[in-house]
Each structure stands twice: as C-alpha cells, then as structure tokens.
Amino acid sequence: MSTLTKQTLSHLDWLEAEAIHIMREVAGQCERPVLLFSGGKDSICLLRIAEKAFRPGRFPFPLMHIDTGHNYKEVTDFRDKRAAELGERLIVRSVEDSMKRGSVVLKSADESRNKHQSVTLLEAIAEFEFDACIGGARRDEEKARAKERVMSFRDEFGQWDPKNQRPELWNLYNARAFKGENIRAFPISNWTEMDVWQYIEREKLELPSIYFAHTRPVVRKGALLQPVTELTPAKPGDVVEEVLVRFRTVGDITCTAPVESNATTVEQIVVETATTTITERGATRLDDQTSEASMEQRKKEGYF
After folding, report:
1. Is 293's pLDDT higher than 90?
2. Within 13 A of 267's CA, how many CA atoms are on the CB side?
3. Residue 196 predicted with pLDDT over 80
C-alpha cells in the first residue's frame, strides 16, 4: 500500500498560485488585456507570474509603461532590457506626448507629472482598445488601494467608484466589461512589501541597481531624503550630503525619495524590511498627494 505524502506549501507558494490564477482569469475573460510594466520591483514579480502562467508560449498580452519622462534612467534601461530578454512587445506612452496634444497642461514647468499619468493611461487604453490592465498595486501600500477589488471595475470614462464594485466570493472573479469599460486587475493585491522581497529572493529575480545601496547626493526634507538631480536641484540654503541610500520604490524623480541603507543584496533588504517601522510610501513619497482622500480622488480619475 502506497503512502501519499502531503506537500506543505509556503505562504509564497499560495500567493504565487493565487496570482497565476488571477492572471489566467484575465487572459481567459478579456479580449485585449495589457500588463503594466515599469521596471519596478512589483511589476518584475508580475513578469515572473506571467512566465509561470503562460510559458513556454508567448504572453497573451503586451507590456506597457506610462512614462512621465522623468523616470530614473536605471529603471527605464532595465525595463527595455527585460522586455527584450523575454521577447515580448513593450508599448511606451509618455506624459510628454499628452502635453504636446494639450490633454495635459502643467500649472508650472516644475510641477510633478506623476498625477498626470492618469490622462496618458486613459489615452493609451482608448488607442489600443484595452479592456483590462494588469497592475502591481498592493493593498498594503496605502488606504485607498486597500479599497480595491482584485478585479477593479472602471466605467466608460475610466473612473473608479469604490462603492460600485463587484463582489469577489470564493475566489470567483468577474472581469467582463462592455465596450469602453475597463478592468484593472491586481494579481499581487494580497502581497505585502515583505512578500515581494522574499519572492524576489526565492526566484532570484534581477533588479535595477537603484534598489541596492549606493552613494547619492541628497537634501534632508524633514524625515525624507530628496535626491539632488537636474529635476530636483538643491535650493539656496539646502545642505547637500553624500549618503549611502537605496530606493524602496521607484517612480517619477520629482516625488520618489530613497532611504538610508547599506543593503547591497536582496537578503539584506529582506532583513531591513522585516525591521523597519516606517511604511513603504511613508518613507519614499515627496509629493503631497499621498493622503487617502487625494489618492482616492486620483484613482477615481483613472490613476493606476
């Protein structure tokens, strides 16, 4: 008589299996999905999930990045390199193009373009007639994102109503949408920052160098560190310091701050993540758009 041994799955195995299931549901229910890939750590995990869900075949969707034009070069270079390695189509649409069309108008030349990504994203969705965008948002990032469903419905105007979302019982997901409507799907919605780093460690995923400790000129702005760049120069009276830092999250240069760190490996980052008492966004956001009300309003306007 044979003895069946029960395999014990780790929490990462469960999270991975759920994410694969969600991604396959999107591919099965939607006609024209797209995976949002910025080159950041969360979207890098999405690429690995897509590989496990669909390889050895091609992905049933292209990759797309909405570029503010003010992203860190280390990240955009990695984005292009990774898409080429996978042999997958990468679509890049820029906020600068929306500015040329007049659909985005900045209040001043130095205004952050971060919030204007919503306009460019909605234009790209209309251009390619995408009916689902797969993104790397996680519920632990901040309060407004915690209100999202895994399959988050957007109406024909690209707007999100947190009070008008579909129930998701027993892991049954509804990704159906009429023409002009859109679904934002979040396969790693139930992951935490720690889960992401542990998954990167387990899968030995390559990352942009900006995630690891390096020396960078910064100015202290309260509890945050503002990188000194051409877009964010030091102002009169600022004290510029050369500090060993890494980025916990990456995005538009004008609103993404590094944190002090000497972690040069993923293993060391996992340890730092386990011991920090400051949230990911709380430690890294320089803009004033991070309150729940502000983020929720931006999401209603079409933000990721």
Report:
1. no
2. 0
3. yes
Looking at residue 223, its pLDDT comes to 82
Separation between Cα atoms, residue 44 and residue 171, nearest integer Å: 24
- Rounded-to-integer distance, Cα 255 and Cα 239, Å: 19
Q: What is the pLDDT of residues 115-153, one digit of tens each?
A: 888 899 999 999 999 999 999 988 877 666 667 777 787
CB 59 within 8 A of CB 85: no
Domains of the chain: 11-196 (3.40.50.620), 206-284 (no CATH)
Euclidean distance between CA atoms 276 and 198, whole angstroms = 15
CA 224 centroid distance within chain? 21
Pairwise CA distance, residues 162 & 164, whole Å: 6
63, 23 Cβ separation under 8 angstroms: no
Q: What is the DSSP string of 211-260?
A: GS-EEEEEEEETTEEEE--SSSPPPTT--EEEEEEE-SS--BGGGB--EE
Say what the pTM is.
0.87
Rounded CA-CA distance 210/73 in Å is 10
Nearest to 117 by CA among 101, 144, 98: 98
Sheet containing 214-221: order of strands = 224-227, 214-221, 240-246, 259-260
Give me the amino acid identity at 99. M
